Amino acid sequence: MPDKNMKKIIFGITDLADVLFYELMAAGENIDAFCVNRKYITDTMHLGRKVVAYEDINDIYDVHELGCYIAVGYNSMNDARKKIYHELKEMEIKVLSFVHSSAVVMAERVGEGCLIFEHAILGPYSQAGICNIFYPKSMLSHHSVTGDFNFFAISCSVAGNVTVGNNCFIGNNAATKDGIHIADYTLIGAGSYLAHDTAEKECVVPARSVTIENHISTDFL
Description:
There is one protein chain. This protein is an alpha/beta fold. It is built from three helices and 24 strands. Strands 7-10-13-16-19-22-24 form a seven-stranded parallel sheet, with no helix packed on it. It has a six-stranded mixed sheet with strand order 3-4-2-1-5-6, with helices on both faces. The chain has a five-stranded parallel sheet with strand order 9-12-15-18-21, with no helix packed on it. The chain is globular, with a radius of gyration of 19 Å. This is PglD N-terminal domain-containing protein. It comes from [Bacteroides] pectinophilus ATCC 43243.
């Protein structure tokens, strides 16, 4: 657990950062500031907190008494979040994790910097690496292992005994067969069902929805 006297900041000012800030406030955490690269700063305040330039962190804070939540999503297949993580570690800034009170975490191991939102489930004997994001109702089932810097979107379901590599994206309501291997940088689109091992940087999407011509809804229901 981080020191109660530690200054805590959120890297990012996107919707993800806003949601994380809301959840942290609800959990009674105190956030000192938002942080972002100087070129992205458009205002000095955000949600009632100051916005500081990432480039100035060493001048503003004692980095040995600073903790940072990384609220960066799946940009560049999660490489943007990976870059910030490694830079913070080089500066010896503690990377913080968040676990919502309604999440069910039975995992053997969860790496630092993970964000686990409401009603997410990490099943028995599962393992999660560093800086993974588990959106609401996402599931990593029993005995499954995920690497680092992955993004699990709303209501996705990874079945048991699945191995997920690094920098993968699993979209809303996507699901997998048990026992498969998902290679690094795999993208599984929303609503997909994955039943096979993937190759690195493979992109899996479901059959597209189409409009049925010459019919209206009441022809069917």
